């Protein structure tokens, strides 16, 4: 078992960052009725807070992908576990992620989406770990860069634990 997670980003700072991202998204997607796609499970809290703060007409969908097992390293093998419910063709799609680590999960899913011919695809991530990146995907809306530590809370797990934490913490 790791030691107790220590706070990295508190609730107040998360809320401010989500508000800033929501304002940017509202400005860029005005009258576009965007389709926000959350990548489960980690994005569920961020998606809920972000959509309420965007506060304009939009639609949501979710997808489950596999990439990590119960450990802390990406296996690099990604599969679509639950498919999208909403048609993507012609839509302005905004992917919503809790964390971009290597970027392999998101790069895979952007390729998968582009084959469905959306009008546009952009990426919104609450956090990214620049030290771990293996792909050059562009993050169009970013909350925080985080250090190369194991991050939990606000939807992000360690072996399915800690998702419920209201802030972002790290495990040593
Ligand atoms: C996490 C996170 C991203 C992915 C990022 O998901 O939510 O989807 O890993 O890692 P990468 O940039 O190295 O691909 P995870 O596979 O742990 O599943 P979960 O969201 O269900 O916790």
Please describe the topology of this protein:
Elements: E1 6-9, H1 11-28, E2 35-40, H2 44-54, E3 59-68, E4 74-82, E5 92-100, H3 104-114, E6 120-128, E7 141-145, E8 150-152, E9 168-171
Parallel strand pairs: 2-3, 2-5, 5-6, 6-7
Antiparallel strand pairs: 1-9, 3-4, 8-9
Helix pairs in contact: 1-2
The structure holds 1-O-pyrophosphono-5-O-phosphono-alpha-D-ribofuranose (PRP).
| Amount of beta strand | 25-35%
Q: Helix and strand string, N-terminal first?
A: EHEHEEEHEEEE
Number of helices: 3
Distinct small molecules bound, one entry per kind:
1-O-pyrophosphono-5-O-phosphono-alpha-D-ribofuranose
CATH topology: Rossmann fold
In order across it, which strands form the biggest sheet?
Answer: 4-3-2-5-6-7
Question: What spatial form do the alpha-carbon principal axes imply?
Answer: globular
Mean pLDDT: 93
Quick one: CATH class? Alpha Beta
Task: Determine the fraction of residues in helical runs and give it as a percent range.
Answer: 10-25%
Describe the 3D structure:
Helix 1 crosses helix 2. The model has no long low-confidence stretch (mean pLDDT 93). The longest helix is centred in the N-terminal third of the chain and has 18 residues, at 11-28. The chain is α/β, with parallel strands linked by helices. It has a 6-stranded mixed beta sheet, with helices on both faces. A 3-stranded antiparallel beta sheet has the order 1-9-8. The N and C termini lie close together (11 Å). Helix 2 (44-54) links the parallel strand 2 (35-40) and strand 3. Helices cover 23% and strands 34% of the residues. The chain has helices at 11-28, 44-54, 104-114; strands at residues 6-9, 35-40, 59-68, 74-82, 92-100, 120-128, 141-145, 150-152, 168-171. It has a single domain (6-171), classed as Rossmann fold (3-Layer(aba) Sandwich). Bound molecules: 1-O-pyrophosphono-5-O-phosphono-alpha-D-ribofuranose. The site of 1-O-pyrophosphono-5-O-phosphono-alpha-D-ribofuranose (PRP) has 17 residues, from strand 2, strand 3, strand 5 and helix 3.
């Amino acid at each position: 078992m790791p030691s107790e997670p220590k706070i990295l980003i508190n609730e107040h700072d998360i809320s401010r960052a989500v508000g800033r991202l929501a304002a940017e998204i509202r400005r860029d997607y005005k009258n576009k009725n965007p389709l926000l796609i959350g990548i489960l499970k980690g994005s569920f809290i961020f998606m809920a807070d972000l959509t309420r703060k965007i506060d304009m007409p939009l639609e949501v969908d979710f997808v489950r992908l596999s990439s990590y097992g119960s450990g802390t390293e990406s296996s690099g093998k990604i599969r679509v576990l639950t498919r999208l419910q909403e048609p993507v063709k012609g839509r302005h799609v905004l992917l919503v992620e809790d964390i971009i680590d290597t970027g392999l999960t998101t790069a895979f899913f952007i390729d998968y989406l582009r084959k469905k011919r959306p009008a546009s695809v952009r990426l919104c991530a609450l956090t990214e770990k620049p030290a771990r990146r293996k792909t050059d995907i562009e993050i169009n809306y970013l909350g925080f860069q985080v250090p190369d530590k194991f991050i939990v809370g606000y939807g992000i797990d360690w072996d399915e634990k800690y998702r419920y934490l209201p802030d972002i913490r790290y495990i040593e």
